[in-house]
Amino acid sequence: MRISKLAVCVFSFLLSSTVNGESIVVLDDLGNEVTISQPAARIVSLAPHLTEILFSLDVGDKIVGTVKFSDFPKKAKNIPRLGDAFALNVEAIVAMQPDIIFAWHTGGVSASVERLNELGIPVFVNHSSSLNDIASGFVRMGKLVGKAANGLRLQSQFNEKLKRLESDILDGPVVFFQISDQDLYTISDNHIIGQSIRHCGGQNLFPDLQPDVTLVSKEAVIAGSPDLILLTHSTMNSPGTKASPWLNRWQSYSFFKGRVALIDPGLISRPSFRMLEGLSRICELIAPVDGYR
User: Fold this and answer.
1) CA distance 119 to 170
2) What's the sign of the alpha-carbon dihedral 133, 185, 203, 209?
3) Global pTM value
4) Cα–Cα distance between 119 and 68 in angstroms, integer?
5) Residue 292 reports pLDDT greater than 50
6) What is the per-residue burial (b if ≥16 Cβ within 10 Å, else e) of 27-60?
7) Architecture of domain 174-291
8) Residue 223: which residues within 8 A CB-CB, separation 6 or more?
9) What is the pLDDT of residues 143-189, one digit of tens each?
10) Domain covering 5-163, topology
């Protein structure tokens, strides 16, 4: 009988799994029970923000595989790639014999993640639907990788700064947040970036969009007359790169001149500890605009 390479990898993985002492059990963000026999020594991270969290927990050296765009911190760039947000190399992941896989609920690889779980590899699914949810993940992930104390410390630090940044202004400046420097995609108040705008005392120009990330028209933005346009630009900190084409387009309108600012998407679109930097940046940009209306 011919045995597939994937079957051999799975058999080897199960054979190498041993139980030493009391198991570690946590619930992931979907309410699924995740059980491992001991703190994970071989980790696969299937999202850039999860890679960041693992480095923050001080287990970056235990990540044996990750996905495209896992680029922070710099050491993450040296980790082998196993796919991206749309496709995973399941066979390669199994061959790495991970003790645990950290996956992202809203990614486009749910079928592959489910298959890996069915093959017997523990999977922790992360889904931060609010700013307050981000820190709770640090604790549970920390427990799974043997860094519970680090997780509690990160949670405390994150929540403390989150509280300090919260504004009590309810009718602050109207903000249009453009999440792409090519097209006019924006977010609703339900999106974590929309929550960030409210947290800083701003009002989202399109609070009730469905779905939470939607393409809008230039005419709709102009008609809404936002006090501030926040534009993400992925290469804004890279020397020798071109500015966003939308920067000049928006500033060509006299009523938007001086009301357009750039923000690094890596700081505000990834629900990791570093998101506090993005949130701080949004608050810094919103505060001076409060006198516009």
Assistant:
1) 50
2) negative
3) 0.87
4) 23
5) no
6) ebbeeeebebeebbeebbbbbbbbbbbbbbbebb
7) 3-Layer(aba) Sandwich (3.40)
8) none
9) 999 999 999 999 999 999 999 999 998 889 999 999 987 789 999 99
10) Rossmann fold (3.40.50)
The ranges of the chain annotated as CATH 3.40.50.1980 are 5-163, 174-291
In 10 A of CB 103, how many CB atoms?
25
Q: What is the pLDDT of residues 96-141, one digit of tens each?
A: 999 999 999 876 788 999 999 999 999 999 999 899 999 999 999 9
**Gyration radius from the chain CA atoms:** 21
The set of long-range contacts for 4-12, using a CB threshold of 8 Å and a minimum separation of 24, is: 5/91, 6/90, 6/91, 6/94, 9/91, 9/94, 9/95, 9/97, 10/94, 10/119, 10/120, 12/97
Backbone phi, then psi, for 64, in 5-degree steps?
A: -95, -15
The alpha helices in 145-217, defined as continuous H runs, are: 148-165, 192-199
Tokens 């960030």 -> residue? 196
Please give the Cα distance from 245 to 257 (Å, whole number): 15
Q: Are 122 and 102 in contact (CB under 8 A)?
A: no
Residue entry with tokens 């009301």: 259
Q: Are 137 and 27 in contact, with CB atoms under 8 Å apart?
A: no
Contact in structure between 107 and 84 (CB atoms under 8 Å) = no
Burial of 6 (0-12, 13-18, 19+ CB in 10 A): middle
What mean pLDDT is reported for the chain? 89
Exposure string for 230-241, b = 16+ CB within 10 A, e = fewer? bbbbeebeeeee
Q: What is the pLDDT of residue 17?
A: 39
Residue 197 dihedral angles phi and psi, to the nearest 5°: -60, -45
Nearest to residue 199, comparing CAs of 286, 139, 89?
Answer: 286
Q: Over 60: is that where the pLDDT of 8 sits?
A: no
Amino acid 154 reads L
Which carries the bigger pLDDT value, residue 219 or residue 291? 219
